[in-house]
Amino acid sequence: MRKLSLKELNRLSPKDYEIREKHPIIIILDNIRSAHNVGSAFRTADAFALEKILLCGITAKPPHREILKTAIGASKTVGWQYFENVVDAVRQCKEQGYIILGAEQTDKSLFLQNYEIDGGKGKYAIVMGNEVKGISEEILPLLDHCLEIPQFGTKHSLNVSVATGIIVWDIFSKLKYKDV
């Protein structure tokens, strides 16, 4: 076994990435405090060739030193849009036919592994909430589903960048590999 060189990885150039077909997933960041978490979301969106990221409320916007540090260039390749209010971002996605998924622990949340995608043909917007308060209360009625990552330790939450990666991978893999 040996590690692959950068050349062997066949990475897309930023220009090729720009014209590449994107997967029908949007990440909505709802009042994320840490720009490092925002940069990580950009990197995740780039890795899975997602449509874009919607930055809402106090969430930092590129160019921002801490976003650039963790995004490692992904904030230049992944499309993004800013909304002052997360409700407006969610409503726009709903109007465009996206299934709205919130990452939150609620009395009606589904464990992530039990969520079944819409026949592999849907478009998804995943709302990730503030590191302390979670997703904004006012968008709960707008969500199609709330997803929860099962946890078995003493903590009942994961870092938002880790949770974003887990949820995006789960939805992405269900869309991309559903018939494999």
Outline of the structure:
The chain has 180 residues and is α/β, with parallel strands linked by helices. It has a domain at 21-111 and 119-132 and 158-176: Alpha/beta knot. The protein is 32% helix and 21% strand.
Q: What does this 3D model show about the protein?
A:
This protein has 180 residues and is of the alpha/beta class. The mean pLDDT is 95. The protein contains 6 helices and 7 strands, in the order αβαβααβαββββα. It has a 7-stranded parallel β-sheet, sandwiched between helices. It has a domain at 21-111 and 119-132 and 158-176: Alpha/beta knot, CATH 3.40.1280. It has helices at residues 14-19, 35-47, 65-71, 74-77, 86-95, 160-176; strands at 23-30, 50-56, 79-83, 98-103, 110-111, 123-128, 145-148. 32% of the residues lie in helices and 21% in strands. The longest helix has 17 residues, at 160-176.
> What's the helix count?
6
N- to C-terminal distance: 26 Å
Helix content: 25-40%
Specify the CATH homologous superfamily of the domain at 21-111 and 119-132 and 158-176: SPOUT methyltransferase, trefoil knot domain
Low-confidence stretches: none
Number of strands: 7
Strand content: 15-25%
Overall geometry comes to: globular
CATH-level-2 architecture of the domain at 21-111 and 119-132 and 158-176: 3-Layer(aba) Sandwich
Write the layout of secondary structure elements.
Blueprint: H1 14-19, E1 23-30, H2 35-47, E2 50-56, H3 65-71, H4 74-77, E3 79-83, H5 86-95, E4 98-103, E5 110-111, E6 123-128, E7 145-148, H6 160-176
Parallel strand pairs: 1-2, 1-6, 2-3, 4-6, 4-7, 5-7
Helix pairs in contact: 2-3, 2-6
